[in-house]
Amino acid sequence: MEKLASLIIIIGTFLWLFSIFVFEGRWQWQMFSALVLTVGIFTAHFWEELRDTDSPEESGEE
Amino acid sequence: MARERVSQADEWQAWAQRYDIEGGIRTFESGLTVKVFVGALFVGLLMMPGSIYLSYVSGQSGAEAAPWVAVILFTELARRSFTTARRQELYMLLGLTGAAVGSGMQYRNFIWYAYFINTPQAASYEIADKIPEWIVPAGDSVGVLTRSLLHPDWFLPIAIYLAGKLLGTLRFVSGQYILFRLTADLERLPYPMAPIAAQGATALAETTGKEETWRWRVFSIGSMAGLIWGFLYIGVPSLTGVMMSQPIEILKIPWIDFTQSIEGFAPTGVFALRTDFGQMLIGFVMPFPIIMSEFITAIASQFILNPQILYRYEILHQWNPGLDVRGVTLFNNLDFWFSYGMGKSFSLAVVGMAASIPMLFKLRKAQKSAGERGSFATPPNRGDFPIWLMGLMWLVGMAGFVWLIHWMVPNFPLSFLLGYAFLYTPINSYITARTFGVLGRDLFEIPYLHEITFILSRYEEIDIWFAPLPDEDYGRGTQGWRVLELTGTTFTSNLAGTLLIMPILLVSGIVVLHFIWKIAPIPSAQYPFAQMMWPINATNEALWKTSLRDGNSEMLQAIRGDYVSAGFTSSLALYGMLWVFKLPSMWFYGIVGGIGSDPGSMVARLLGAIIGRFYMIKRFGMRRWYMFNPVLAAGFACGVGLIGMGTVAIALVSKAVIVKPF
Predict the structure, then answer these.
(1) Which of B407, B459, B488, B557 is most buried, with most CB under 10 Å away?
(2) Contacts of A58 in chain B (CB under 8 A)
(3) Domain total for chain B?
(4) From the candidates A20, A41, A52, which should be mutated to test the interface with B, based on the most B CB atoms within 10 A?
(5) Residue B427 lies in a domain
(6) Contact B7/A49, CB-based, under 8 Å?
(7) Residue B2: inside a domain
(8) Alpha-carbon gap: A22 to the closest alpha carbon of chain B (Å)
(9) Is residue B3 in some structural domain?
(10) CB-CB contact of B143 with B152 (8 Å)
(11) Residues whose CB is less than 8 angstroms from the CB of residue B474 and which lie 6 or more positions away in sequence, other chains included
């Protein structure tokens, strides 16, 4: 899941650079890249929060 | 070497733990005593005029000093009387004095709109005659022209304000309490930043004991530095302003503008060195990676991005040689940075949601496994309130508020108000309470919510821009309840103190502001910060308030879809790539904060951060330095505030006794 999130984010970033340099920054292409990036970032955070590890927030209580 | 991944929550908590030197089980006691109440009122009201005056002179109210002055006086009296001051009493004193000293500023909008309604900007944008009378009386009314808040012309704005204040107290007390119970009691979130606030009262409570501690020494050093700096920066201009038509400023307030000096090699770049070196204290406290990344990004923006890319490709096209920082900033904003900033804000909302929504899923997962986490039981003697009562208070407060807004703007669709009040506000507040509980800061904010609402509602009258909307956030305030818990102060005593002092402050605040306004027009040479900033603020406000009119306003034209998308997508890409390469998320907040900003405004903070990181930590050690930080900052604020209070007292007395010859 971590690798998948990284892959989506990297694709989104390249898409954005592509939209700037090839499509002269047209907002439709930029927003499409943003959509891909959003999916990647959400995937990343879901993986981070729901992976099976004891985070300090859980275990460090009084 | 593979870098270990640290989640955003862990990263921020690790930073917050540097400040956390308290812990353990606490017993609860009332902090409200007669001496606390009278002491808070005395010092608060004594410093309130200084605080208002300072905010117009230097842009900083110094209000943070007053609570510390009250606490120092209190502890000294306790020591001289061979008694001790309790931590609960001191924390209560801090809160009540803070409320007292800030009570004048709650009416500051009256002064602002009394100025705005007669500005050329309001006239040229044709809104001066459309500003509702529940905000400010007409521009040619006696109340405005004679600068008198006590004139009957002000009755309606003041009455509306007071009604809003009453309903707001009902909503905020109950809303914050319910969310605190949910997040701190039920979910057991740690609130990592709360111990910092709790530490101040502890620092000075210790001084009334038998042994004098390091805290008192650090506080004194901070106070002396604050006194010296306050005298140079605020005292000299204020005192000379009393005697001369043009005050002497040792350091120009609020900045020294180098924008025209750099325009030869960096056209469209801005650099205005902010002279308030008290900001160094913020640099001491703030996380170093944020300060550094913010400054480097700001430098790159003004010296590379603006002149070499945006200007060269004619994206920044309104710039002319010879403009000062205000002109360049205005044109740059209209050309590009306003749109870009809008997109940047949307990205913060997405990042906030991405960080907080998975937490909700995690809660559901955790509740199944950890039994104690789902407990709603309260600690004994904390002074809790029945949840049903708080729920009822919130409903009454919110229903009354919606009715009040509907009365103010009767043609605005009621469905939007109800949606905000009973759907958006609870969800938004809960998300913020959770992020405060875990990260100690707010992450979730939908930018330009009002503007979007106005467009969707197809409401075209300008009065809606002046009305409040019921889109509230109680999440931030939940941390205060956690601090009460950490200091062992009963909730009932805190609420009682707040309610008792409120009527006194409502009356005294308006009387004091009335007299400050009588000293001289605001803005004028007497108030250099207001004189410098208010005209540009008036332009911005006029632009905003007419932005949706006729669909072709300057502000609306300044919003360009491709630039907004660029701000949004580039920020998301930055956040994503930092995550991919396992780099700190703090860099994201620093870079996003610094891009397009004036690096000159960050120099003092940067100096503070560098001195803290490379000298103080080495000298005192990491742990001790982060123990010193909040106490030092409090001492400095106290010193500056004392100077402000002294100078305003002299200014007020001189204005009262000097008779002009004629």
Answers:
(1) B488
(2) 366, 370
(3) 1
(4) A41
(5) yes
(6) yes
(7) no
(8) 14
(9) no
(10) yes
(11) B171, B172, B175, B176, B179, B425, B429, B432, B433
